Structures are given as C-alpha cells and as structure tokens.
Amino acid sequence: MSANPIYLGVVGVGGVARPSRPLLADSPRSGTGLFAGDPPGDWATASATPSLNKTGALPAEEMATYLASAPGRAILVDNTSDINLARSYPTFLKKGISVVTPNKKGFSDDLSLWKEIFSSAAQGKALVYHESTVGAGLPVLSTLKDLVATGDKVTRIEGVFSGTLSFLFNTFAPASGSSNAQWSAVVTQAKELGYTEPDPRDDLNGMDVARKLTILARLAGLEVSRPDSFPIESLIPAELASLPSSADGISQFMTRLPEFDAQMANIKDAAEKEGKVVRYVGSIDVASKAVKVGLQYFDKDSAIAGLKGSDNIISFYTKRYGANPVIVQGAGAGGEVTAMGVSTDLLKVMERLH
Ligand SMILES: NC(=O)C1=CN([C@@H]2O[C@H](COP(=O)(O)OP(=O)(O)OC[C@H]3O[C@@H](n4cnc5c(N)ncnc54)[C@H](OP(=O)(O)O)[C@@H]3O)[C@@H](O)[C@H]2O)C=CC1
Ligand SMILES: N[C@@H](CC=O)C(=O)O
Ligand code: NA
C-alpha cells in the first residue's frame, strides 16, 4: 500500500463494474483500497458481501459517515443509476468525500441539486468527476470544460448522444447496404450488449439523451431547470407507455415490443423514400437557449448517417474554433468503455486530492 492510501466506497456492481473487470485494471497506479473489499478492487468479493449489495447496503448517510472515518481521503464510486443515491452526493461531499460516477441522474435532475452538488464539493474541499455521464469514456465533458475554462464561448453543441440509439439506427437503417432486422430484435441485441440503461425504455423514450444534453447545457452555462423542460421525441409505442417501471414492467415491455415493429419500419421507409436515413439526434443552441431531442433525416453520405456500432459523434461549435467544430467521436456505450471513463476520473481525483 502507498504512503497515502485513498479509500474507495463502491456502490453498484453491474455491467459497468463487473466482477471480471477490476477497477483501474491496466493502470500503473496501485495502493488503493476498496473500502470493504479484500483483496482491494475485487468486485466479486464486493458483490457477494451482504453489506455491499443492494438489499444489505448501508443507508447513504451511514455510508458517508463510515467513509469519512477512513484514515485518509475517500471517494464514493457510484456505479448505479439510482436517483436516491445521487441525491445524497451533497452529504458525501460536505464530509470531504469526493464523487466519481457514470450515473447521470444527479447531474441532470433539478437544477437545485446540480447547484447543491457543486457548492457542497466546494464546502468539503472534495472533487466531483462524472465523465462517463455523457459519451461513456469519450472525453466529452473534459473537452467542454477545457473550452469553457480557457475562455472560449460555446455557441452550439450537436450530434448523436446515445450509444443505444446509434446502434439501433445504424443496424436497423444502415446508410449503405440494406437490413431486414426487426426493430425489437435490435433492441434486444443492444440490451444484451450492455448498451442500454438498466431500463431500456429510458433510452427509447429519449430521456437518456435529454439528461446528457441537460448536463452539457449546464456546463456550457445554461440554467436548464430539468431534463423534461424541453420537448423530447419518444420511440415508445403509446400502447406500452403505461407499463410499470419495475423489473416486471421491463420484461413485459420487451415481450410486447415485437407487436409494434411495423411502426418503426414505417419511420425507416419514410426516410428511405426521400433517399435519406433517419437518426436520433440532439442539439443545444446556446444563444437562443434551445435544446432539441428527436428524430431527423440525414443524407446517406453525411457523418451522422455513416456512424458505426454504438458510436457517438459530438460537435462543439465555439467562437475560437469558428465554422469548424471540435468533434469527439467513438463508442458511446458499453461496459468496458464506460468503466474506462470511471477509471480516468478516479486517476484524476487521486492525483488532485491531497
Ligand atoms: N452501460 C453503459 O454503456 C453506460 C452506463 N452508464 C451508467 O453507468 C451506470 C451503471 O450502468 P450499468 O452497469 O450498465 O447498469 P447495471 O444495471 O448493469 O448495473 C447497476 C448495478 O447497480 C445496482 N444498484 C442499483 N441501485 C443500487 C443501490 N442503491 N445500492 C447498491 N446497488 C445498486 C444494480 O442492482 P439491481 O440490478 O439489483 O438493480 C446493478 O447491479 C448507470 O448509471 C448508467 O446510466 C453510463 C454510460 C454508459
Ligand atoms: N444507455 C446509454 C449508455 C451510456 O450513457 C447509451 O446508450 O448511450
Ligand atoms: Na464521456
């Protein structure tokens, strides 16, 4: 163990934080201690420890008190999509515990929570890093923060922000060649590949994209009150909209989705009749404070139409860069690339904490 060990409290062992994927796997850094894992960073041990799984987990307040009692600086790593845990970040931060997370909920909920998270971090001299909340491990937030911190003016952000929706449309309606794939079958595939949110309806209803745009807009200086404060186009069939948000609701949704394949086929065919492809995109216009999320047609030779797999493409238009945007492109979903974003953030926090 290093001279100044840093203590990690890790919550959530799922697709991103898998037992087979050690935290900081290939990193030359060592000397971290998983707060109740032995050996350090062993997810399998952690997930089998009753106090670390969901049913036996300590309430957030107790977890924060426990971590604050560590004989060194501590970091909460939240690998869940739990809004309640996210709402307790201020409790951790005020106690000096830094937060590293791919969980979008806390940063895209009420603006008051966003403000409280960052004021609590300042109060507790703690750090908050959440790179994987947009574009998974792609350097999206770090790029935007660097542009803003160096005095550039961001005027517009646009692109494809969902790995799941990118994969769905790239597979279902490719720009070159043709596909006979049914929409529901591709949704199942995206879920199996670990691209979707724990509840895939959060991808299909546009809320995942809306949350990402809310985070980007706030970092660009816009005070977006909530992710549902602007229009969002949903791809959930109306007949399935009222299924419960439970595990049973997810399973009913997946079972019944094939009944509605013709609806998505019609959307694909309508674009095809104009010689185009349909894609799910988002944009933020900073001057007019307009945020848009939904379907749009694209020429088949455009960059967005030509994306592959789960790729995101995010263009930052700024005063400094003029008409040619800064573009970040690459896989925007999947356990491994998301875990990389979490590990990158951990390394940054470990370097900056003293
Ligand atoms: N997968 C991806 O490509 C990306 C994911 N993310 C984000 O990463 C996070 C994790 O995603 P992913 O790993 O795919 O999701 P999973 O559903 O695979 O994993 C989340 C895990 O957290 C557990 N969990 C939920 N709430 C709690 C809690 N309060 N206490 C303890 N454990 C809890 C879940 O248990 P249970 O199953 O019992 O509910 C589950 O095992 C999400 O916030 C997601 O939005 C971000 C970018 C990309
Ligand atoms: N479900 C999300 C995962 C990453 O944020 C997506 O598909 O983009
Ligand atoms: Na990112």
Provide an overview of this structure.
GO terms for molecular function: homoserine dehydrogenase activity; NADP binding. One of its GO terms (biological process) is threonine biosynthetic process. It catalyses: L-homoserine + NADP(+) = L-aspartate 4-semialdehyde + NADPH + H(+). This protein is of the alpha/beta class and 354 residues long. The protein has two domains: 6-136 and 337-352, NAD(P)-binding Rossmann-like Domain (Rossmann fold, 3-Layer(aba) Sandwich); 140-332, Dihydrodipicolinate Reductase, domain 2, CATH 3.30.360.10. 37% of the residues lie in helices and 17% in strands. The protein is built from 14 helices and ten strands. A five-stranded parallel sheet has the order 2-1-3-4-5, with helices on both faces. A five-stranded antiparallel sheet has the order 8-7-6-9-10. A hairpin with a 7-residue loop joins strand 9 (311-318) and strand 10. Helix 8 (163-172) crosses helix 9. The longest helix has 18 residues, at 335-352. It is globular, with a radius of gyration of 21 Å. It starts with 5 loop residues before the first strand and ends with a helix. The structure holds NADPH dihydro-nicotinamide-adenine-dinucleotide phosphate, ligand LTNE7NMQ and sodium ion (NA).
